[in-house]
Amino acid sequence: MERTQELFEKINSYLNNEMKGNTLKAFEDLLKTDKVFQLEVEKHRLVQQALKDEDTLLFREKLRVIDQELHENDLNASTKKGTRYFWKIAAIFIIFIGLPSLIWFWNMPQEEDLFSTYYVPYPINAPNRGAANGQPELIKIAVDYKHKKYRKTICALENLIKQHPNDAQLKLYLGNSYLNTCLEEKALTLFRSFKENDLYYDDAQWFLALTHLKMNNFKATKTQLHNLTHRPNLYSLKAKKLLHDIIHEKK
User: Fold this and answer.
1) Is this structure's pTM higher than 0.70?
2) Residues in contact with 161: Cβ distance below 8 Å, sequence separation at least 6, in sequence order
3) pLDDT for position 165
């Protein structure tokens, strides 16, 4: 099965309940018989579910806009007026998100904010005992991973990958666990190990870009993002948006 932009658009249309009539019937018929296609659709569904938290993205975007307005106001207005404006906005934030959150935001590096805005851990579903199929450890790993107990998942995943070295999803879980425990170099090595013909190659490339971003390696980040934008894949639009934001922030 060739992974094309047209295929991705059809899958998204199906997942968004936009597909109708004969097109829907043909899609569902293929879904019943083609196991590779089933896996592709399921992967899109999981990633779409993980990336659809638009409320969080919009909230962070508003924070950045207000921060920019404060900066411009400080440059263009008098010190007295700028101070009044600052505390007016600060009062609103204290009411809605609390003083500790306000202090955290104003002292947070902009690059880390970009990473936090775009990063969503690769989704994992806790399998039932039958679905685990000889990997009972995966049930506990999934529970710990979902509860962000990444340090606990690392050892278990490393051992499981030794038994199943070709399981790309396990590698994605491990790479994300490294990324969330300040083991960025290990995450880089793992994400780089994916080959272009791997089913989860695009996922690895996206997380590779985010790892570079977290490490403030903007040249490598932009290179990875350019690679994602120049071919059809699930992350191309996100990559374009992040690339735009990085270029904008660096001006």
Assistant:
1) no
2) 167, 170, 171, 174
3) 92
